[in-house]
Structure formats: structure tokens, C-alpha cells
Amino acid sequence: MTKRLGIFGYPLGHSLSPAFQQAALDELKIDALFDAWRIAPEEFAEAVNGLRADDCLGCCITLPHKEAALELVDELDPVAEEIGAVNTIVNNNGQLKGYNTDAPGFLRGLREAAEFEPEGRSALVIGAGGAARAIVFALREAGVSRLTIANRTEERAQNLARDMSRGRFRPGATSLEIDQLANTAPYADLIVNASSMGLSGGPSPEETPVPAELISGNALCYDAVYVPTMTPFLIAAEDAGARVAGGLSMLIYQGAEGFKLWTGQDAPIEVMFKAAREKLAGR
Ligand code: NAP
Predict the structure, then answer these.
(1) Containing structural domain, residue 32
(2) What is the reported pTM?
(3) Which residues, 6+ apart, have CB-to-CB distance to 26 below 8 Å?
């Protein structure tokens, strides 16, 4: 029986997941089809229930459903529970388990694609939405020495800092005002844009959250945004002489974690990168 997999989102305009997941399934000769399932919020609960079918392996989940999925699965992986978002569901004989693979996916991308080890380093994370939650969690688990969260709505940065505080790990929280960023950005070894700024077709595609003059030439600047490849933030970082990395590695590695959960097999990473890059180039 051909198995089914897919991604739930609404809208689903720029998803690369069907292209690179199908390429990986085909490479390993796994008899499964990976679809794009455009599901509105009011249809989501019923759609998740449909994942219990015998021929369905599970799904990945993108905006705006990651939080709603928490309540709809039978079991939650502890990482998804603490982050407060599910981006992968696995169907185990009709029982649904929710995972968050954004956090390990980001960390693997940071280490393997960007060759940056966060342990003992200082970090600034821009944003306080779902991506930022996973990234702050991942950086805490990886042992960063200091972390500040900067967000347009400062209160959301404060809430995220509070939620992720554990033991001696107490993130700072600021707004995106230049005078506030000036207290942290120039001293950060790692700056991550986990906001929608710079996203093609997003709310402010031309803007960088941090200007070049506040970025250290010794920093690594990572943008979770992967469309375009060179975002305004990464262009500013290059102007500052910093190293840069785009968000494609996070996307591929979170997908690779999901692939392993659904199929039990290690994902063919290079095949996935190639398919995603081809899809991006064909836009
Ligand atoms: P989200 O939950 O909707 O959060 C959006 C964040 O962006 C919030 O912090 C929001 O600030 C901020 N923001 C939105 N418009 C802004 C603007 N005009 N100026 C300043 N800040 C603005 O979205 P998300 O899921 O966290 O995704 C955030 C970004 O990460 C997206 O671009 C997405 O494509 C990317 N992403 C990438 C991956 C990957 O695998 N590479 C995975 C997930 C997400 P407020 O709190 O003030 O509204």
C-alpha cells in the first residue's frame, strides 16, 4: 500500500517540503507520497484526525497550526511540550504523537552547515514567535553563555524569556529600538533573525532587524528566513564583515528529523538540499 505524508499549512505558498521530502522518499525507494495539504484553521482538527488512517505515516505542520496541534495529538514529546508547538506528527497505529523538530533542526544546521558551536557563546535572537521559541530552546540546551531576545513587541520577548528561563539560564529581553539593540548586538557571537523581517512576500521584505553598524565582524549571523537566500539582514551582516548563513539548513534538518521519525531511516541530506535548491531556483 502506498503510504501518505504531507504538510498542513494555511496558506501554503512557499513550502519547499513536498519537493525535498518526496525526493528523499524516492531516493530510498520508500513507497509513499508527500503532499501539500492547504487546511484552514476551522478544518484542522478534522484533518489531524484523518492522520490516524492505516495508510498515513504522519505530517509536518507549519503556520498557523503549530500551537493548535498541541491539543489534538494523543501524546506529546517533551521538547514539543516545552516549546509549546508541534511541527511533526507521527501516526503509530492510530495513535498520534507530536514532536518539535525545529529545535534540533536549527541546531544541526548551525553546527553542520554554518560550522558554529554555540556552547559558551553569547547570542541575540530576534523575534518571539514560534521559530524564536524553538531557537531559544535549542540554544539553551546547547549551553550558550548569555542570550537576549529582541522583538518588535517587547512584552512577547519578556514572556519568551520567562518561559525559557531555567536554572542560571535567564535570557534578557528588549525591543528592536536601535538604542536597545546597541547594548547587545555588537557583543553577540551569534545573531539569529527568527522574525518575519526580510521574508519575501512577508510584512517587511526590505528591512533588516539589525543594521550593519551594530554587527561585530566576528559574529555569525543566521537568518531563519530562506526566501530570499540573501536577506537584508544577511546583506547587512556581510557589510559588517560577519559570517552569514541562511535558514535553508534549519528547514532541511527539521525535515530530516521528521523523515527519520516517519520512516525509521536516516534521511539522504544531500538529496534533500539539492531538491530544495532546485525548487528555489525555479521560483
Ligand atoms: P510567527 O510565530 O508569526 O512570529 C513572527 C515574528 O516576527 C514575531 O516575533 C513578530 O513580532 C515578528 N514580526 C512580524 N512582522 C514584523 C515586522 N514587520 N517588523 C518586526 N517584527 C516583525 O512566525 P514564525 O513561525 O516564528 O516564523 C518567523 C520567521 O521564521 C518566518 O520568516 C519563517 O519563514 C521563518 N521560519 C523558518 C524556518 C526554517 O526552517 N528555516 C522554520 C520556521 C520559521 P511581534 O511579536 O511583534 O508580532
Answers:
(1) 3-100+249-281
(2) 0.97
(3) none
